[in-house]
What we know:
The complex is a heterodimer of chains A (160) and B (464). By secondary structure, chain A is α+β, with helices and mostly antiparallel strands.
Amino acid sequence: MEDQFVGREGNEIHVVTFQVEGGWFGISVNHVLRIEPLGRFPVTRMPRVPDMVEGIINYRGEIFPLIHVRRFFGLDRLTYTENTSVIMVVNEEERIGFIVDEIPEAHVLPTLGMEDFSRRGGTMLDLEHVQCLCKDEDHLVVVMDVGSLLRQLDVAAKTG
Amino acid sequence: MCVLLFAAVSMTGLMRMRSGTRIMQKTSDPMVRSFRTQEVDRTGGRFLGIIFGLTVVVLGGGVALFVLKTRPLIKDLSQAEDMLKRGLVPWKDPEGAERWTSRQDEFSCLMNLDIMMGSNRSVVWGEDMMEGARKASQQTQSLAASAEEVRMASEHMGSLIQECGAHVKEHAEIVSEALKGIHQLEQFGGRLQQVGETARKEAEHQHVLADRSKDELRLASQALEDTRERMASIETLVKSLEGRSKEIDNVGQFITNISSQTDVLALNATIEAVKAGGEAGRGFTVVAQRIRRLAIESTEAGDKIRAEVERVRSEIAEVTERVRQMASSLEDSRRRAQDGVKAGEQLQGSTTRNQEIAKDMIGLKSKLDSQIQKVAMGLEELSVAMDETILVSANAESLAEEQIQATLEESRLAKALSVLLDQLHNSSVSEQGDSLAVTSGSDGEMDLSDGKSEEDDIDDAVSV
Lengths: 160, 464
């Protein structure tokens, strides 16, 4: 419904933002089911899964695999704290949890024009997983495209 | 006649001198006769004749002179012989003129009688005298020997007395030094008394001070005990404070938890509100965001509370540690104060002993004084006795000197006496013989007079 605004100059978007190694990333609120502290759930380890998969949790009768975002970006894990949180994402029938090091925040941010960006300089960038770019005060927020992200994760899980 | 002989001889000599021929046989001179057979040449004969003539002249002159001189002596001798044959003896009257008298006339009768009567006794006396003279001679010899020994002993005694005198002088000097030392000792005794007095006063003062310090230390010990109890109560209080701070920390923790949960809840509420959409969703989003801000502030407040509580807890821990240190140092101080009290008691005991020692010292001074007095008196007496001894030894020295002189004299006299006794012995032997002879003849008169003169000589020697 709100996807129609994506990529257009002057629109606003509700995003849940989190920080990884100095960079700001966001996920559209429409794909977010809940945000919970990781310590609230017991994590069950799974065999023969990629390194970025932390395990699975049972949240209100539904199974959520947990992806460690830093491992997903190719970074080392940090020690879990009481602020380590899980962003529970829903895309159609798929369920997945992203482990982030800080409690995320919810913002209404203005979007930047993606079309001009794609045409003028984005060709050299892989913008497949990027839904749009937002401006928050003095920094930009990369809003991830959850659908393409989940597809890539499927491929990565199957290839090992 | 001699002159004629001389003239004849001279003429002969002169004739020999002139002729130088053979000596004629008509001369009767035996010496000339010996030359008769000898052949002498003219010149040699003349020379010998001259010598012979000169010799004969000299000898003849000498003989003539001798005869001229000895003629009156021979005349006297023949006169004396004549006198003696007549029974006269020469004697000199008081004027010194020589006279000849007949002694037979004067003494013969009496002497013969006496000698006849006393000869027997004289024999006995002579024997006794001889024996006595012999013994006396022996005695005087032994007397001389013993006198020599006495002299040597006296010399030895004199040297010994001199040494004794020197020793006595040294002893006298030592005694005077000892007297000086005694005086110094007396002064020292006085100083000792002063020191003892001072020590006694000091000991009393120390005793008082020790008493006061003991009391002070006892009070300090009590005060420290009280302080220790107060410190213990402070420690318990601090412990309870620590417990309280823990509770506060728990409360802060609880607030932090609630606020973080509220934060997450508000976040989820915001998400839900956004999803709800519309005006209500938008309003709820604002409310949820406000709640979230409050939650964040609550979290910060809880964190601050926890930080403050943590600081308070660390400070309390520090206070607890300091209180513990203070308690231990107080305990040390208390123990030291108790030790000080004990030391004060010991000090009091020792000052009491010091007082007693000082008293003893003062008492000792009086004893020392009396002893010094006695020793000084003894030394004074000794000094006087030494002086007297010096005088006596000097006298003894002079006496020994005199004795040496006397023994020397004695020895000399004894020797002289011995000689005289020997003479007496000899004379008595001869007298005995004379006495025996007198009984049979009158020749002993002259010998008796000789014996008497010997006795006079002995008397003279003894008187010398």
